[in-house]
Amino acid sequence: MSENCFHCGQIIEKERIAFDEKIFCCNGCKSVYEILNMNDLGNFYKLNKSSGIRPNDDNTSQFDYLDTPEVFTKVTDFSEGNTTLVTLKIPVIHCSSCIWLLESLHTLNKNINYSQVNFTRKNVQISFNHNELKLSELAKFLTNLGYKPVINLETADKKEEHFDKTLVIKLAIAGFAFGNGMFFSYPEYAEQVMGTTDFWMEQYKHLFRFIMFLLATPVVFYSASDYFKSAWFGLKNKIVNIDVPIVLGILMLYGRSIYEVLTDYGPGYFDTLCGLLFFMLLGKLFQKRTYDALSYDRDYKSFYPIAVTKVDFNDKQQNILLNELNVGDRIMVRNQEIIPVDAILIQGEGNIDNSFITGESASIPKKPGDKIFAGGKQVGSVLELEVIKTVNQSYLTQLWNKEAFKKYETGLDTMTNDISKYFTFIILGITLLAGIYWGRQDFEKMFQVVAAILIVACPCALALSAPFTMGHIMRIMGRNKFYVKDTLTIEKLAKIDTLVFDKTGTITHNKKATIVFEGADLPDFDIKNIKSLLKNSNHPLSKSLYDFLEIEDEYLPVENFLETPGKGYSATVRGKVYKIGSASFTGQPPRNLETAVHISCDDQYLGKFIFTNEYRPNTAGMFSELKDFNLHILSGDNSSEEEYLKNLVPTVEEIRFNQSPEDKLNFIKQLQDKHHKVAMMGDGLNDAGALKQSNVGIAVADDTHSFTPSSDVIMAGEKMNELKKYFDLSKDAVNIVKFTFAISLFYNVIGLSFAVTGHLSPLVAAVLMPISSISVVIFTSLVTWIRSAKYFQINK
């Protein structure tokens, strides 16, 4: 009696190792079992029995070359301080237990910070301490666990993945077998139609039938292998997915055909089976192309076309689009801004927080000449950087797929999965009843009826409707400067009933304001110092004041920059310690209800700049369109403009002033506790916490944008007065998907009616599958275009 290895599940042929009352096929499997149990990861074997991977016996010294500096730089995604990120291709990833184990690596090795698996691409991204764990040692560690990484020039180049050609090869084999199978089966079909017997055909029909069997066999076991794998893994995980009835149909046709040929009952259905799989694979190819088109359309630049500040060699500043940056350009990065491209530090004191990339909050000091990776956030004074890689080459292009930007399963996807699950059981029940009925009426026809039911009922169009519709809507919104993170956000937008607006920089302009200085005349020495300090801040009032000070822009080194959120910031410029911020921050009591920036030098009060905000155009019209929502306004400023805001927004439920970032976040929580679906509009800086807490965080940006993972949407400030259109279009998108569901189900009901009554052949059912998918795509494209044209000019 053969025994199976407890770890990998393979039959033990040679070596038999007993350990801990279990049997293993080799020392590698035994070692992995020991490692897992020592680290309390025994649940690995409960997820999927016999799902382990046998450790590779190859010499792991083959990975030593990874530690050479040139190769290390080529292979890794990011390396700074103690932390390195690397993405490794691991082809043997195949099930949920593989994912679970690979994402638990940090419990096996203390020098691994985290790991994240991309199952569809068969790779894992790992963050590790390269000072304690070499890259070669990491590769050996994975190999010893049975997950040997594949590292070659293609994987090291980090090129965007191209279309998988194996599907095309499978389709080509099925097409070749289908065409030739029809050719070899033609004589028998002709005989049946004409009712005559040909001596030559009778003599060679067995040869033709054997050739058709040879043609059909690789189609069934290679071209259709993905359906078998999907059905098998689903059943292993106790899930009856939609591929189960398809596999049953394929096996029934194939088995019946072999039976007919062996018993000389007839030619079988080999040609029909090849045609069936050809058209099914054609539909699958079409669907895969559709998904790829959606993902390729949404690169990182499409989410952030907001301007960055470019500096020429005369210190002249210019705001340009992020995708217009070229190698050699110099850019300015202020406090709390994320570096948009890989660059070299030219001027300033770098203090880079890489938590957005690595998940760790430790900051890395940088000095002029050091390299700074895209995605790091500057904490402190302004930096001047020289671009060494464009946006599409920088590590920032991968950030959207990081945990902060991770796509989650949408409610519509869940609806699709639920419908598919129940649909499968219903189809299997209908198939069983139809099989019993036709088995009594016409045993030969039963096989065709059962196969036709199993094939025509495949809800491919159902699965395609949601991503295709949402993909269209995301692109249309993006063209109109409303950049949505993922399809879940569109669904959330459709459910929003409460809107919370930050005032400064959101419903008011960042740069447009009436500014008056109150205090003694400031000497040019102080004005230049103040302007250099203002350059370091991203606060809307600081930006406005920076533009207001009409003096030659001279960059002066800023030292000891320190910001107190909601209060202000201080720093040393040319030996003088300045404080810029609120009255209390500079040691002054608030005198009036006014918006002002107070300034002190060496603890001596210099005066204040008083601001009168300028609101965005048609703000009153925007709020009147949003009357169906619960409206709230929050502001970090005082209540000097309370009466004006109440007149501007007569439907507002509440206006709160002097709100700190924590106050805004808590206010959002209070609304959510009352079961409201909240969208927060803010400038993405002091509002980061509130944006993240809200159901949908919308960062409003004008010229320069502080990149933040807290927001679900980034919209151009000029589009604020069109906010209602985006909410309406999101609701239309959800309704379009639901309507498409209904169309897909209608297709299946009609198809099943014909199949059950025996009026639909398996081949015709296979032809109808891609046609139904194509019709759904055409419908969603047409309807989304019509609905979008109602709101926006989309034929650009």
From TrEMBL:
GO terms for biological process: copper ion homeostasis. It is found in: Cell membrane. GO terms for molecular function: ATP binding; ATP hydrolysis activity; copper ion binding; P-type divalent copper transporter activity. The chain crosses the membrane at residues 167-186, 206-228, 240-259, 265-286, 422-440, 446-469, 733-757, 763-786. This is HAD family hydrolase. Residues 4-76 form the Putative metal-binding domain. It comes from Kaistella carnis. Belongs to the cation transport ATPase (P-type) (TC 3.A.3) family. Type IB subfamily. It comes from the Bacteria. It is a multi-pass membrane protein. Gene3D superfamilies: 3.30.70.100, Calcium-transporting ATPase, cytoplasmic domain N, Calcium-transporting ATPase, cytoplasmic transduction domain A, HAD superfamily/HAD-like. The keyword Transmembrane applies. PROSITE patterns: ATPASE_E1_E2. Keywords: Cell membrane, Hydrolase, Ion transport, Magnesium, Membrane, Metal-binding, Phosphoprotein, Translocase, Transmembrane, Transmembrane helix, Transport. The keyword Transport applies.
